[in-house]
Design brief:
By secondary structure, the chain is mainly alpha-helical. The protein has three helices and two strands, in the order ββααα. The chain has a single domain, classed as BFD-like [2Fe-2S]-binding domain (Arc Repressor Mutant, subunit A, Orthogonal Bundle), CATH 1.10.10.1100. Helix 1 packs across helix 3. Bound molecules: FE2/S2 (inorganic) cluster.
Length: 79
């Protein structure tokens, strides 16, 4: 029997310093999303593009939008 594993590195789920997983399909964590936003990326589609991927199941999109909106509102309230 041959078992083909998904391309996501299972061990990477346990790297707590990477933040929590937002998009399991594309291995995107909250830290990766913050990094993209710090580089000027400000919407969901561009986050995927920044990491050369695209939504697959789509379950992460609303949560990712919430993260972006929260970070944007915090940043603007600090100015
Ligand atoms: S969890 Fe992000 S596309 Fe599936």
């Amino acid at each position: 029997m041959i078992i083909i594993l998904n391309c996501i590195d299972i061990n990477s789920h346990f790297h707590y310093d990477q933040g929590m997983y937002v998009c399991i399909c594309n291995n995107l964590t909250s830290k990766k999303i913050e990094k993209a936003m710090d580089s000027g990326v400000s919407d969901t589609k561009k986050i995927y593009s920044y990491y050369n991927c695209s939504p697959k199941c789509g379950k992460c999109i609303s949560y990712m939008e919430d993260l972006i909106n929260n970070k944007t509102s915090i940043s603007s309230s600090n100015n």
